[in-house]
Specification:
The chain has 166 residues and is α/β, with parallel strands linked by helices. The protein has five helices and seven strands, in the order H-H-E-E-E-H-E-H-E-H-E-E. Helix 3 links the parallel strand 3 and strand 4. Pfam families: Peripla_BP_2 (PF01497).
Length: 166
């Protein structure tokens, strides 16, 4: 039995597309001359971006710069895109990491072997928490980041789900 059913593959491809938009749009030309404070605070090309994910609507004003991943496949996706410099931490490696990404993966701080505590996530100071499954944020299973008072300052994103966990 294949791990990639058509539905899972579509979910994975959608998540990949969203990740590429969110994390690489801001990689365009930059002002090497230093500029003034107003120009450095300019909104990056392609932003703001609003994403509706699992019934939660979030607007991103700029590409995330400190991402925490929950489950290894979101971490692998960011590493494969060359975004390891934006990873503040990872947790819950639920299967073996791809051999070609193992060295980069091991350089990312591991926040927890399973679901990280809410406090552990906050300690990493992320501007995006990227979970592999909806259960990563379910109050009865994962970390209730979406229900926290800091939710507006720490957007969350999940892949492989269509708004339902379990």
């Amino acid at each position: 039995m294949s791990l990639f059913t058509p539905a899972r593959m579509r979910g994975f491809l959608r998540a990949t597309a969203v990740s590429v938009v969110l994390l690489t749009v801001g990689c365009g030309a930059s002002d090497a001359g230093g500029g003034d404070a107003k120009s450095t605070a300019a909104v990056p090309a392609g932003f703001p971006v609003t994403v509706d994910n699992c019934g939660v609507r979030t607007t991103y004003d700029r590409p995330p710069s400190r991402v925490v991943t929950i489950h290894q496949h979101p971490a692998e996706l960011l590493l494969a895109l060359g975004l390891e410099d934006r990873m503040a931490g990872t947790a819950f490696p639920d299967s073996a990491v791809l051999p070609e990404l193992r060295e980069k993966y091991e350089a990312i701080p591991e926040l927890a072997e399973r679901e990280p505590s809410f406090e552990k996530i906050l300690d990493a100071e992320p501007d995006l928490v990227y979970g592999g499954y909806g259960s990563a944020f379910a109050e009865n299973e994962g970390v209730p980041v979406r229900r926290s008072p800091t939710r507006a300052s720490t957007p969350t994103s999940t892949v492989s789900t269509a708004g339902k966990s379990g």
